[in-house]
Structure of Methyltransferase FkbM domain-containing protein:
Amino acid sequence: MTLTTLTVGSIMMRNYNVEESTSVDLVMEGLPASHPEVVQALSSTFLLPPSTLPYNLSTNTEYLASSQGDTWKFIHHYISKLFAGERGGFFVEAGALDGQQLSNTLWLEQELDWTGLLIEPNPYSFQHLQHKHRKAWTSNSCISTNQFTRKSVLVALKLRPGYISNPWYIKGSSYEFGVTLGYLPPKKSESFHYYFNSGDETYVPAYCFPLYSYLLALNVTTIDVLSLDTQGSEKDIVKTIPWEVITVRVLVIEIVVFDGTKDQRSSVAEGPVHMRRF
């Protein structure tokens, strides 16, 4: 069974300068997904175990009012229906943000005792994620768009002083440099332009690993829910999955298909057809 959900987004390419890193490379670029050095690097450095501390979730009224977003009810409804209260599952959520705001998986932990893997490349968001004490593995890295390790650049956004918006929506719009969201013709997405115009940019080096590498490091062969919100690289990530050895029961992908116009219903209907063309 496969679940696809859709939301809006956009990418604006800009010139950039990245300060040269003086840190020692933690893993070589261009190694295949199953290489022992890759699995070891993830196990020893890039994967942090589930917290044993009590949850440290925000109770701020304004924060909670925006924490579920436009697509959460849709995702929650269908995952609840598909799994029918099944307990002890395993999820992977890429684009985990702070682990609470816009999370597709927190309720699975809290209500059904699931665990999983939360991947968030933005180091600023990842710090907040750690403080939430999620009962899942966490990784401050990104998923590679091919079957090899890569070093990339994350365009990390934060709300610009003087602008009014949800700061987590801005941070959630951070993206890997060179990746664009795209949209379904003839629609054009304008919805996220305000987020990009409202955000200050920081360019951060990022290590990217194939999804299969994470699963090898965790000794996992079945993902019950795979949630991808990686600002444009979702389709390429799905193409890297070795389906002969990995089972994904439900796939949740957030992509651009409409701009909040009166035609959005027909656009959403077109979305799953579009996403099946992997």
In short: The first helix runs from residue 36 to 46. The first strand starts at residue 90 and ends at 94. The CA atoms of residues 201 and 258 lie 26 Å apart.
